[in-house]
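Morning F.,

Quick status update on the modeling queue. The single chain you submitted on Monday has been processed. Sequence for confirmation:
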Amino acid sequence: MSTINSPSVDLSSYRDQHFKGSRVEQDRLLRGSTTLYVGNLSFYTTEEQLYELFSRCGDIRRIIMGLDKYKKTPCGFCFVEYYNRADAENCLRYINGTRLDDRIVRTDWDAGFIEGRQYGRGKTGGQVRDEYRTDFDSGRGGYGKILQQKVGTAGKLNK
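Structure tokens below.
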């Protein structure tokens, strides 16, 4: 597959604040990476569904599911590693912004998976963004974790 320069494969402004190294080193790794961060997944999306979708852009080395660090259940993100950069670029071009499990998939470059990063960074074990949500999202566990704790429910408010 040939690679075409396209703004859709350029580095975004997002940088992992937990990266162990300098910004210059992180940017160098991102520019040569074959790993993508995939966000906004349903908690119910399976690894098999991810392989089916992301393999349309090329051969996948591995998929690492994002897990709640306490429950060890999926928490709405994953890492997809391709064997080559061109396939990862095609994924950014063609899969970013598409629907999977009725959710818009977001993809971005990742500097490379390191063990431990598969766990959510929120205080409750999942993703930080799911702690502060005030809306009901059935694909991501109902209401946000802080709101759930305040009302003492497992995701359902009494009306």
